TrEMBL record:
<keyword id="KW-0521">NADP</keyword>
<keyword id="KW-0479">Metal-binding</keyword>
<dbReference type="InterPro" id="IPR046997">
    <property type="entry name" value="Isocitrate_DH_TT1725_C_sf"/>
</dbReference>
<dbReference type="InterPro" id="IPR014273">
    <property type="entry name" value="Isocitrate_DH_bac-typ"/>
</dbReference>
<dbReference type="Pfam" id="PF18324">
    <property type="entry name" value="Isocitrate_DH_C_bact"/>
</dbReference>
<dbReference type="GO" id="GO:0051287">
    <property type="term" value="F:NAD binding"/>
</dbReference>
<dbReference type="InterPro" id="IPR040978">
    <property type="entry name" value="Isocitrate_DH_TT1725_C"/>
</dbReference>
<dbReference type="InterPro" id="IPR024084">
    <property type="entry name" value="IsoPropMal-DH-like_dom"/>
</dbReference>
<keyword id="KW-0816">Tricarboxylic acid cycle</keyword>
<keyword id="KW-0460">Magnesium</keyword>
<keyword id="KW-0464">Manganese</keyword>
<dbReference type="Pfam" id="PF00180">
    <property type="entry name" value="Iso_dh"/>
</dbReference>
<comment type="subunit">
    <text>Homodimer.</text>
</comment>
<keyword id="KW-0329">Glyoxylate bypass</keyword>
<feature type="domain" description="Isopropylmalate dehydrogenase-like">
    <location>
        <begin position="6"/>
        <end position="337"/>
    </location>
</feature>
<dbReference type="GO" id="GO:0004449">
    <property type="term" value="F:isocitrate dehydrogenase (NAD+) activity"/>
</dbReference>
<comment type="similarity">
    <text>Belongs to the isocitrate and isopropylmalate dehydrogenases family.</text>
</comment>
Length: 488
């Protein structure tokens, strides 16, 4: 008998304690070699003054065990409370959100009985950095940050996940026809890494058509890898399509720590009644068992659970014509799964975590993704975008003012408003706000220095121009590091 693996467990709020107790009962009966350490998170912690819903000492357990099985929590109403999930993800570097979305037809009603896909969502970057500013009276901005190491980690994770779970295809979804630099990087990294997994089919879809196809033909997808915001939306669509949000698990994976949870919330409307479905959390625990190297137990529990569902043992929210008897409560459902440990489903597809897949790679340990940092590029400063707040001004007048104030080392090249070029040769029909992006470059293409930019800013501000911010224009190893504007 191998040693017990310590895991951190939070019973959470609402239905959390009921579904956690049911889940732990099944794990124990199945022989999971785990030693749970319980921590307090959620409502009580928020109300005790911990703004992220977690007490400082709870972090010690998470750092020690590096594995977190988490029940849903309730975030109190009102301001000042931060999302516990976002805090945990960012603090512990949980870069991959992995969400399997599977149909269990005919036992769970769905329009898409063949659906069996996994969404691998980048979890740390994109528009979720929380870097937002109001820049003018009319304009607000949110920074979208996409990094090469972030893309490499998530894309490689998706391929490793596919390989280890015997999945055949990885689809990348981005909007790089518009966001050529940020989403373009994600797509490029996908294309760079894909050839290292020749046994896996790959495709790229623009996110809008990709989402549409997911909604209408989810069975054509296997693994989907995508940046944070698209992944957030896609994974809710996909979970909904399976017919029951109550059955879906998710994992948040980092280099050091991983967190496993159901995708649903704390369901206060049914809390304390003992009727909640523990399946989402139980299937999250199955993912956890695979992660900590106990695939045999994971397989036993998952197959017993599938058999339970197809035997018609259903909690209230799934109860229907294929259900047996009265709706099962959370604990009775857990006991029904325990009775079936060692059995496999007869109609639903059984899972297989222990046997080697077609390529001989058994999924017995957590996926570790290593990113090679590149040598820095030769970076050359070639100009600056100066963002200006100016109300009730026409582009030609603004250009005249800027040209008159500009220093000899930097000349005004163009002005855009919300990305549309309005000078030179703008259209009078273009609607303009009070937010102008004014591009300055060296008149003869000569090198630009930071001092040149500071000099320009001094001249502009001294002339009464309200500069909001600047973005340096650089080349990296001779390659342009900025968009040309207007979606180019
Ligand atoms: P949150 O903002 O925390 O996600 P919510 O109320 O929007 O909360 P849920 O808590 O997921 O979302 O609940 C949505 C609905 O689904 C509720 O009617 C709830 O009773 C039901 N529900 C959620 N989880 C379960 C479950 N495990 N078993 C049965 N019903 C559930």
């Amino acid at each position: 008998m191998s040693e017990l693996t310590p895991i951190t467990v939070a019973r959470g709020d609402g239905i959390g304690p009921e579904i956690m107790d049911a889940t732990l009962r099944v794990l124990q009966a199945a022989g999971a070699r785990i030693a749970p350490e319980f921590i307090e998170i959620g409502q009580q912690q928020y109300l005790a003054g911990h703004s992220s819903g977690i007490a400082p000492e709870a972090w010690d357990s998470l750092r020690r065990t590096k594995v977190f099985l988490k029940a849903p929590i309730t975030t109190p109403q009102g301001g000042g409370f931060k999302s516990l999930n976002v805090t945990i993800r960012k603090t512990l570097g949980l870069y991959a959100n992995v969400r399997p979305c599977v149909s269990y037809a005919p036992f769970v009603r769905t329009l898409h009985p063949q659906m069996n896909l996994v969404i691998v969502r980048e979890n740390e970057e994109d528009l979720y950095a929380g870097i937002e500013h109001r820049q003018t009276d009319e304009v607000y901005q949110c920074l979208k940050l996409i990094t090469r190491p972030g893309c490499e980690k998530i894309v490689r994770y998706a391929f490793e996940y596919a390989r280890r779970h015997g999945r055949k295809k990885v689809t990348c979804m981005t909007k790089d026809n518009i966001m050529k630099m940020t989403d373009g990087l994600f797509h490029r990294v996908f294309d760079e890494i894909a050839p290292q997994y020749p046994e896996i089919e790959t495709e790229h879809l623009i996110i809008d058509i990709g989402a549409a196809r997911l909604a209408t033909r989810p069975e054509r997808f296997d693994v989907i890898v995508t940046p944070n915001l698209y992944g957030d939306i896609l994974s809710d669509i996909a979970a909904e399509l399976t017919g029951s949000v109550g059955l879906a698990p998710s994992a948040n994976i980092g280099d050091h720590v991983a967190m496993f949870e159901a995708i649903h919330g704390s369901a206060p409307d049914i809390a304390g009644k003992g009727i909640a479905n523990p399946s989402g959390l139980l299937l999250a625990a199955v993912m956890m068992l695979v992660h900590i190297g106990q695939p045999a137990v994971a397989e036993t529990v998952h197959n017993a659970w599938l058999r339970t569902i197809e035997d018609g043992v259903h909690t209230a929210e799934l109860h229907g014509s294929l259900s047996i008897g009265r709706p099962f409560g959370s604990m009775d459902f857990a006991d029904a799964v325990i009775e079936r440990l060692g059995q496999r489903p007869e109609q639903l597809a059984a899972v297989r975590y222990t046997q080697a897949d077609a390529r001989g790679a058994a999924p017995t340990a957590a996926i570790q993704v290593k990113v090679q940092r590149r040598a820095p590029a030769v970076k050359t400063l070639v100009g600056v975008d100066v963002f200006v707040h100016a109300a009730d001004v026409n582009p030609d007048a603004l250009a005249g003012q800027l040209c008159a104030l500009a220093t000899p080392s930097l000349a005004l090249q163009m002005i855009t408003n919300r990305g549309v070029k309005v000078w030179p040769a703008g259209f009078p029909e273009t609607f303009c706000t009070d937010h102008w992006r004014c591009r300055f470059v060296a008149p003869q293409g000569q090198a630009v220095t930071h001092a040149d930019i500071v000099g320009l800013l001094q001249a502009l501000t001294a002339g009464g121009v309200d500069v909001i911010k600047t973005e340096n224009l650089c080349t990296f190893d001779g390659e342009r590091g900025y968009a040309l504007g207007q979606g180019q």
